[in-house]
C-alpha cells in the first residue's frame, strides 16, 4: 500500500464517528475488540484462514477506534463532579489546581483597558471577566470535605470599581497561575443541554475540550478565592504559561490600546477582549480564519524565522532544528488548538524529512496530522475549527492547479510560449494575483458548505477580500514577532514594530468594517443538510478528478441535477400539510412563540428575553433555520418591555420580514420610535393592532385581536396594554396573552364571549394574579403553556392549573413546547422529551453560536 497512513486514518475517523452515533457500552465494544483480535491472531497462525485477515483488520481498527472514543468520552470515575452536582446553581466550596490559567494583565495595562470600557446596556453584565480551568480535588459537604475529580471551568466576574479603586484584588489575581492550588466559593452547576431545536450545544462543546469540562463555576469576588499551597507539577507547562502571559502583556503594553486585542488574537489566539463587532465583521467578510490561529499563522511564523536564518548563512541542519523548536513552542503558546496543531505537525514532518533525507509527501503529512490530533483528543473530529482547517488545507493543496488550469487555460498556454525577455514588468504581479485568486477560491469551495451549515453565512467575494487583507495580516504578524522578540530582549526597541503593527491593525479593522457594510458582501442562508453536504463534496471530487475516473463532464452535471431534484422533491414531501403548529421557545424570562399556518404563512409572536445574550441571534434564528424558514410573514410585538422585543434587530438582519405589528401604546413610546426607525430603514410594513381586528392572509385559520381596546388610557400599565391574540382552526382555539395582568384580564372578561380556548398561554409568565382563576374558568383550556423561569412562575398559578385539570407545559423545564392542530385533534411535545426518545439527536454541532467558541 502506497500511503497506509491514509487508510488507517480514514478507518480511525469512521470508528470515532460510529462511536459518536451509537450508544454501545464500553464493555461490549472492548469484548468485540478482543474477539476480533483473537480471530486475527488465529488467521495468522493458520495458513488456510489468512484469506479472512484482510477484511477482518479494517473491522478491528474501526472497533478499536470506537472503544477508544468511548473510553475517552464516556468513562467517568465514581467520584467525578458530574455525579455530585446538578444543572441547578448551588453555592459550593471547592478546592483544586489550576491547569489552564487566565491571562493576567499587569496593573497599568489592566487599568488602561478598564477605562476604555463603555457602560453596559444591561445591569447584570460585569465590567471584566476572566476564565480558567480548575482540576477539582475536594468539595465541602455537610459531613466534611469529600474527594472529587473532573475539570471545572471557573468564570471570575469583577467590577471596574473593585479592580481600580481597590488594590487588594491584584495580588490575588497574580496568583492565578498554572499549578496553583485554590479554594473557591461560588455557584457551581452542570451545563445544560440545549432547550430549543438548533440551539448551540454548549454542554457537548465543553465535553469535547481537552481536558473534558463537565462543570461550571461562577465566582463574583476575589474575597471568595483563597490561595493555598502551590502544587509541584510540570515545569514545562509552568514556563509556557508564564511566557504566554508575559507575551500578551508585552503586546498590551506597547501597542495602541484599541489595537492590542486583535493583535493579541492574531499572534497568540487570545480573544478575551476582542469585541463582538470586530468578530462579526470578520465573520461577514469570510476571513474569520485569520483571527482563529491556524496554518496561515504557522506558515508566516516559519517563513519569518527561516528568512533571517538563511540571510545569516546558518546551515540547514541547525536552521531546521531552530525552526522545529519555534514551531513546537508556538503550538503550545497558542493552546494546541486543532488548526494550529494540524499545521504544526505537517510543518514538523516537512522539516524532519530534510533531516532524514526523505521525500516529502503532503498527502501523508495531512493524514498523519489528522491521526495524531484525533489520538490526542478524538472529540476534535467534531470541532468546527478542525473540520474547516482540514478541508481548507485540502482545498489549497489539491484545488488551485485544477482551477487555474480550467479558468486561466489560455493565459497559462501563452506563458509557456513566452521567453523571459518577452514577459512584461507586470508579469509577476499578474501571476501573484492569479494564484491568489485560485488559492482563495479553492479554500472557499472546500469550506463553503460547512460555513453555511454552521454559521448560515455565504460570502461570495471572499477571494477578493483575502487578496486585500492578506498583506495587512502579514505585516501585523511579522511586526508582532519582532515586537515579541524585542520585548523579551530589549523592550525599549519594541516601540517601532509596535507602532507599525498598531497602525496596520487600524487600517485592517477599518477595511474589514467597510467591506462588511457593502451591499451583497454576505448573505444569511438556511444552510444545507448533511446529505446535501455529502453530495456537494462528492460532486467536487468527481469534477476535479473526472479524467482519472474516466467520467465525462456531462455525466457529472446530469448526476448533480438528478441529486438536486431528488433533494428538492424530498423537501416538498416533508412539508406539513393541513396542520397548524404553535412553538413556544425556552428563552428564560421572555417570550418567543412561533405559529406556522397550514397555508405556509407564519407569525412570530414576541421575540425577546432578559437573558444576557442575544435571543434573536442565538435561539430564534437557529430555530427558524432548522425549520427551513427564510421569510417571516408577520412579527407581532405584544408590548414595549425589552423581554418581548430585544431580539428583533438580529432577526431584521438575518431574515426577510414582511410586516411588524404592535399596539398603539408601543409605537407612540420612545422604545417604539426606535423600533419604527429600524423598520423604516428596511422598508418593513407596520400597523397598529387593537381589539376587534382580524388579520387576513392566514386562511383557513382565523386570527383575531382581543386586546387592547382601540382607545386606552396612557395610565394603564404597559403589561396590561399587551396584544392578546386568538387563533381558530378546525374547531380548536389558541389564546396568546403575553403579559396582561389584572386590568387586562378584567378587560377581556368584560367581553367574555368567544374567549373559550383549547390552548392557553398563561399571562405574565405564570406569575400570581388575583383574578387568574376566574380567567381560566372562563377560557376553559385543555392545555396551557408557560414561558418563564424558575423564579417567576408562581406555585399558586400551578396549583390553580392542576386543580382545574389542565395539562401544563413549562418551556423552562421541558424545553421548547410544540402544539400541533390537525384533523386528528391537538397533540403536543417538548424538546427534552424528543431528545430522550430520539437517538438521532447526536448530530454534529449545528446552529449559530458565539465565534469565541471557534477554536
UniProtKB/TrEMBL annotation:
Its membrane topology: Multi-pass membrane protein
Residue intervals passing through the bilayer: 5-22, 28-46, 51-69, 287-307, 314-333, 432-455, 461-494, 533-549, 556-575
GO biological process: establishment of competence for transformation
Chain ranges of the Metallo-beta-lactamase domain: 589-795
Subcellular location(s) per record: Cell membrane
PANTHER family: DNA INTERNALIZATION/COMPETENCE PROTEIN COMEC/REC2, RECOMBINATION PROTEIN 2
Pfam families on file: Competence (PF03772), DUF4131 (PF13567), Lactamase_B (PF00753)
Entry protein name: DNA internalization-related competence protein
Keywords: Cell membrane, Membrane, Transmembrane, Transmembrane helix
Amino acid at each position: 500500500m502506497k500511503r497506509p497512513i491514509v487508510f488507517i486514518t480514514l478507518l480511525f475517523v469512521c470508528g470515532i464517528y460510529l462511536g459518536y452515533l451509537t450508544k454501545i457500552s464500553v464493555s461490549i465494544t472492548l469484548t468485540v475488540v478482543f474477539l476480533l483480535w483473537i480471530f486475527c491472531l488465529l488467521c495468522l497462525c493458520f495458513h488456510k484462514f489468512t484469506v479472512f485477515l484482510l477484511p477482518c483488520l479494517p473491522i478491528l481498527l474501526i472497533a478499536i477506534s470506537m472503544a477508544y472514543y468511548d473510553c475517552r468520552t464516556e468513562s467517568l470515575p465514581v467520584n467525578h463532579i458530574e455525579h455530585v452536582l446538578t444543572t441547578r446553581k448551588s453555592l459550593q466550596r471547592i478546592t483544586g489546581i489550576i491547569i489552564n490559567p487566565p491571562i493576567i494583565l499587569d496593573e497599568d495595562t489592566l487599568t488602561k483597558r478598564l477605562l476604555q470600557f463603555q457602560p453596559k446596556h444591561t445591569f447584570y453584565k460585569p465590567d471584566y471577566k476572566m476564565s480558567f480551568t480548575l482540576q477539582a480535588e475536594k468539595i465541602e459537604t455537610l459531613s466534611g470535605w469529600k474527594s472529587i475529580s473532573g475539570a471545572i471551568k471557573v468564570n471570575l466576574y469583577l467590577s471596574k470599581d473593585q479592580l481600580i479603586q481597590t488594590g487588594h484584588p491584584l495580588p490575588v489575581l497574580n496568583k492565578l497561575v498554572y499549578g496553583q492550588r485554590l479554594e473557591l466559593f461560588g455557584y457551581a452547576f452542570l451545563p445544560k443541554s440545549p432547550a430549543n431545536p438548533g440551539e448551540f450545544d454548549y454542554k457537548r462543546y465543553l465535553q469535547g475540550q481537552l481536558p473534558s469540562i463537565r462543570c461550571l463555576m461562577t465566582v463574583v469576588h476575589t474575597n471568595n478565592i483563597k490561595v493555598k499551597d502551590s502544587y509541584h507539577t510540570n515545569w514545562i507547562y509552568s514556563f509556557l504559561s508564564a511566557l504566554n502571559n508575559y507575551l500578551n502583556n508585552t503586546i498590551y503594553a506597547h501597542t495602541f490600546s484599541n489595537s492590542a486585542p486583535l493583535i493579541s488574537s492574531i499572534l497568540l489566539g487570545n480573544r478575551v477582549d476582542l469585541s463582538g463587532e470586530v468578530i462579526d465583521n470578520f465573520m461577514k467578510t469570510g476571513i474569520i480564519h485569520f483571527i482563529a490561529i491556524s496554518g496561515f499563522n504557522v506558515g508566516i511564523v516559519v517563513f519569518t524565522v527561516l528568512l533571517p536564518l538563511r540571510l545569516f548563512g546558518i546551515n540547514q541542519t541547525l536552521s531546521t532544528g531552530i525552526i522545529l523548536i519555534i514551531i513546537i513552542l508556538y503550538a503550545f503558546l497558542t493552546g494546541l488548538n486543532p488548526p494550529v496543531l494540524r499545521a504544526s505537525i505537517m510543518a514538523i514532518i516537512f522539516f524532519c524529512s530534510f533531516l532524514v533525507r526523505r521525500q516529502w509527501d503532503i498527502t501523508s503529512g495531512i493524514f498523519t496530522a489528522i491521526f495524531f490530533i484525533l489520538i490526542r483528543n478524538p472529540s476534535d473530529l467534531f470541532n468546527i475549527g478542525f473540520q474547516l482547517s482540514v478541508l481548507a488545507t485540502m482545498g489549497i493543496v489539491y484545488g488551485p492547479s485544477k482551477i487555474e488550469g480550467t479558468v486561466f487555460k489560455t493565459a497559462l498556454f501563452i506563458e509557456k510560449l513566452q521567453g523571459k525577455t518577452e514577459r512584461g514588468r507586470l508579469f509577476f504581479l499578474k501571476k501573484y494575483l492569479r494564484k491568489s485568486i485560485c488559492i482563495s477560491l479553492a479554500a472557499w469551495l472546500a469550506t463553503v458548505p460547512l460555513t453555511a451549515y454552521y454559521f448560515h453565512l455565504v460570502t461570495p467575494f471572499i477571494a477578493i477580500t483575502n487578496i486585500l487583507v492578506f498583506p495587512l495580516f502579514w505585516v501585523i504578524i511579522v511586526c508582532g514577532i519582532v515586537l515579541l522578540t524585542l520585548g523579551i530582549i530589549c523592550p525599549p526597541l519594541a516601540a517601532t514594530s509596535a507602532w507599525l503593527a498598531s497602525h496596520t491593525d487600524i487600517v485592517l479593522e477599518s477595511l474589514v468594517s467597510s467591506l462588511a457594510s457593502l451591499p451583497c458582501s454576505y448573505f444569511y442562508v438556511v444552510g444545507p443538510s448533511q446529505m446535501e453536504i455529502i453530495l456537494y463534496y462528492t460532486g467536487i471530487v468527481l469534477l476535479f478528478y473526472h479524467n482519472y475516473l474516466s467520467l465525462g463532464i456531462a455525466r457529472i452535471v446530469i448526476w448533480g441535477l438528478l441529486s438536486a431534484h431528488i433533494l428538492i422533491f424530498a423537501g416538498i414531501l416533508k412539508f406539513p400539510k393541513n396542520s397548524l403548529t404553535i412553538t413556544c421557545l425556552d428563552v428564560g424570562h421572555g417570550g418567543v412563540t412561533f405559529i406556522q399556518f397550514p397555508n405556509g404563512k407564519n407569525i412570530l409572536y414576541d421575540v425577546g428575553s432578559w437573558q444576557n445574550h442575544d435571543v434573536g441571534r442565538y435561539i430564534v434564528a437557529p430555530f427558524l433555520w432548522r425549520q427551513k424558514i427564510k421569510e417571516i410573514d408577520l412579527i407581532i410585538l405584544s408590548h414595549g418591555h425589552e423581554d418581548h422585543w430585544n431580539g428583533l434587530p438580529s432577526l431584521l438582519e438575518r431574515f426577510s420580514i414582511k410586516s411588524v405589528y404592535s399596539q398603539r401604546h408601543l409605537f407612540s413610546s420612545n422604545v417604539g420610535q426606535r423600533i419604527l426607525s429600524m423598520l423604516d430603514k428596511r422598508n418593513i410594513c407596520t400597523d397598529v393592532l387593537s381589539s376587534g381586528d382580524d388579520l387576513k392572509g392566514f386562511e383557513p385559520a382565523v386570527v383575531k385581536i382581543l386586546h387592547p381596546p382601540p382607545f386606552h388610557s396612557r395610565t394603564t400599565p404597559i403589561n396590561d396594554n399587551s396584544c392578546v391574540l386568538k387563533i381558530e382552526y378546525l374547531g380548536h382555539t389558541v389564546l396568546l396573552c403575553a403579559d396582561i395582568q389584572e386590568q387586562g384580564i378584567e378587560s377581556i372578561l368584560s367581553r367574555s364571549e368567544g374567549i373559550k380556548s383549547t390552548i392557553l398561554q398563561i399571562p405574565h409568565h405564570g406569575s400570581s394574579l388575583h383574578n387568574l382563576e376566574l380567567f381560566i374558568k372562563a377560557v376553559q383550556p385543555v392545555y396551557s403553556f408557560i414561558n418563564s423561569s424558575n423564579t417567576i412562575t408562581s406555585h399558586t398559578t400551578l396549583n390553580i392549573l392542576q386543580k382545574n385539570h389542565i395539562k401544563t407545559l413549562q418551556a423552562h423545564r421541558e424545553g421548547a413546547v410544540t402544539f400541533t392542530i390537525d384533523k386528528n385533534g391537538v397533540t403536543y411535545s417538548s424538546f427534552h422529551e424528543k431528545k430522550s426518545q430520539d437517538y438521532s439527536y447526536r448530530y454534529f454541532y449545528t446552529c449559530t453560536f458565539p465565534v469565541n467558541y471557534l477554536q
